[in-house]
Design a protein that fits this description.
The chain has 4 helices and 4 strands. It has a 4-stranded antiparallel beta sheet, with helices on one face. With 136 residues, the chain is α+β, with helices and mostly antiparallel strands. It has a single domain, classed as Alpha-Beta Plaits. The longest helix has 22 residues.
Length: 136
Amino acid sequence: MAFACPQLAMAQSEWPFVSGEYVEVSGIEIDDGHGLDYANHLAGMWRKGQAFAMEQGWITGYEVLINSFPRKGEPDVYLMTRWTEWETPEEEEARAEAYRRHMAMTESEMQSASGDRAEYRTVASSILLRSMKFRD
């Protein structure tokens, strides 16, 4: 086949993977005595926003992972969000407006709430990963 269709043979990738979802992982450190405060935030406001994004088809999944045995300097909680494609600038603006309406908060109120959480939690890390799926 390679002799009959050399361009086709050259176009086929030998790489055994194809790109999958994007996965954003945020590592969160929580001050002693505030685990319940942050858990309540995740179960309330964070979950409400993530569930809305899922309903809209903006993301494909979200998850909370707990570091059962954190060493010094490691996050206590990891927040994961998955999606398949980036939005355009126009879509980004429309999504932000829809999100604010759903959350019934202004940008100032959201920033203030984030600042309040900063009293007991620190975003220690944020990474963007890409899942890989086997080609076969």
